[in-house]
Write a sequence for this structure.
């Protein structure tokens, strides 16, 4: 049963669901409503996490990103504030760490419509209606590429993203990325099979000097992915130092001129 | 007389054969080709040999020029870094495989052809690399046709077929010099037409089918033809011959491979 959850009170909110069902989006909605600390962790992610970088950029307050290796620390925070832990779709729900019973713990599954019965139904004590329709096949491959410092030619990025999300490099079920483009802005790209791509500009300072330092990267889930082709086409879409410096000088000049005019 | 006009074959032998069969079935008496015989596709030599063997009057396209002169197109040719990388890769592949006699043939092709009040050219009368897009400013488009002295200009290069009629109108011209107003001159321009014949071997209209045009000189009727063919054979050959698989993927969807003008008003300065 889908329920309305009061997610403002202290406690642990463990969020799971299939790839692209809207887990991060739901967490973003809860954190946006909060006035106090905004605490988030993604235990199933490795050294870097796009979702966390997205939330950090888009939330007005300061997001506290948990070092999820320290369970005692998480419990300490959860006693004072709501703490959101996002689990990847690939994580085995039966082997999650057991938290102390003194910490209120809510297990929330964000599920697409039409999913009648699944492991998430058995695991969760709260079901939230997510986005899209359930893909019957679980992704068998995940490709993650750290692109921090890379700056894209927008037309090339558009071309690669179109090809990626239309099956040129294998069957993509979920793709998301944070990309820096040459005019100094950074964007969130999100795709779930069967839906249109979603794009959002990130609230990051425009970078028109050297290379941006904020996390950027791409994560692709699917089957029969041609990981080499994805990587090489992404690489061919990035600007080298000389081109980047040339275009950044032009954008700085436009920016200076518009300031004079206004 | 019924004439067939084709363009932008791009080494796609399967598509060319299908179009030749179709125009024969429609009893075309003469064929004109607007160039870009090579580039991106897997059979550049076979396509040129077929065009030569049928003695088809042919203009030089931008790809034909690049294979002869070397790739030195200005940046207007590529809308993105990725497109540029793919275009260069296709150029290199074609350059390495083209026969010397094929290169010689491409080198001697004229930039335009005339037949009565018809003019045939690849991009525009000014340059093989210039795109006459359907949304191009009407004055500029009219100027391109008037510069040829023809009533109808057949072109290709954009890979999307269209017919654009430039209605009769008047142009007022006055040159002011050093603060003094010049005399106003009024030109009356008669009806002119641009016919873009699309692409045989690398369509960009969202389907893999080959396109070309049949034109009846007596009735002045233009028929845009779209011909189905076994594009999967070409796709398989692209991969077998070592061209990037993404070319096959794009061909199967009627998407351009790489080259496309980003700014149609840009005048190529190469």
């Amino acid at each position: 049963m889908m329920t309305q959850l009061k997610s403002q009170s202290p406690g642990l909110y463990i969020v799971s669901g299939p790839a692209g069902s809207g887990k991060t989006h739901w967490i973003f909605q809860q954190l946006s409503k909060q006035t106090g600390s905004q605490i988030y962790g993604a235990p199933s992610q490795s050294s870097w996490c796009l979702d966390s970088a997205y939330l950090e950029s888009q939330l007005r307050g300061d997001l506290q990103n948990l070092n999820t290796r320290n369970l005692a620390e998480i419990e300490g925070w959860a006693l004072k504030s709501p703490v959101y832990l996002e689990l990847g779709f690939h994580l085995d729900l039966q082997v999650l760490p057991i938290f102390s019973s003194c910490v209120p713990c809510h297990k929330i599954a964000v599920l697409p419509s039409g999913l009648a019965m699944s492991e998430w139904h058995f695991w969760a004590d709260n079901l939230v209606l997510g986005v899209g329709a359930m893909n019957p096949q679980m992704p068998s491959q995940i490709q993650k590429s750290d692109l921090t410092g890379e700056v894209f030619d927008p037309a090339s990025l558009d071309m690669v993203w179109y090809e990626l999300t239309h099956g040129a490099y294998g069957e993509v079920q979920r793709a998301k990325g944070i990309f820096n483009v040459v005019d100094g802005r950074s964007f969130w790209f999100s795709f779930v099979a069967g839906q249109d791509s979603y794009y959002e500009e990130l609230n990051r300072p425009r970078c028109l000097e050297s290379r941006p330092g904020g996390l950027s990267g791409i994560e692709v889930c699917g089957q029969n992915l041609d990981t080499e082709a994805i990587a090489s086409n992404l690489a061919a879409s990035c600007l080298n130092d000389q081109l980047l410096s040339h275009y950044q000088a032009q954008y700085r000049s436009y920016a200076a001129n518009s300031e004079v005019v206004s | 007389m019924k004439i067939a006009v084709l363009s932008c074959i791009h080494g796609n032998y399967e598509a060319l054969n299908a179009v030749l069969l179709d125009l024969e079935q429609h009893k075309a008496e003469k064929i004109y080709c607007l160039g870009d015989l090579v580039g991106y596709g897997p059979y550049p030599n076979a396509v040129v040999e077929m065009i030569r063997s049928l003695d088809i009057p042919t203009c030089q396209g931008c790809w034909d020029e690049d294979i002869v002169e070397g790739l030195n197109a200005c940046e207007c040719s590529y809308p993105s870094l990725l497109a540029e990388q793919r275009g260069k890769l296709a150029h290199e592949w074609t350059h390495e495989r083209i026969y010397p006699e094929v290169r010689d043939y491409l080198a001697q092709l004229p930039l335009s052809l005339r037949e009565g009040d018809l003019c045939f050219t690849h991009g525009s009368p000014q340059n093989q690399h210039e795109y006459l897009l359907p949304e191009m400013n009407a004055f500029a488009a009219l100027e391109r046709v008037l510069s040829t002295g023809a009533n109808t200009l057949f072109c290709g290069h954009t890979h999307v077929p269209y017919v654009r009629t430039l209605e009769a109108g008047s142009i007022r011209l006055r040159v002011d010099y050093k603060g003094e107003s010049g005399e106003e001159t009024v030109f009356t321009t008669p009806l002119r037409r641009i016919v873009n014949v699309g692409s045989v071997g690398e369509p960009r209209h969202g389907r893999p089918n080959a396109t070309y045009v049949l034109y009846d000189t007596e009735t002045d009727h233009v028929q845009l033809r779209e011909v189905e063919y076994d594009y999967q054979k070409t796709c398989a050959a692209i991969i077998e011959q070592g061209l990037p698989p993404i070319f096959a993927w794009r061909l199967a969807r009627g998407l351009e491979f790489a080259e496309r003008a980003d700014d149609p008003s840009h005048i190529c300065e190469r």
Observations:
- Chain A has two domains: 11-132, 141-249.
- Chain A touches chain B at residues 153, 155-156, 158-160, 163, 166-168, 229, 233, 236-239, 243 (CB under 8 Å).
- The two ends of chain A are 55 Å apart (CA to CA).
- The helical segments of chain A are 23-33, 50-58, 71-80, 119-123, 154-165, 227-236, 241-261.
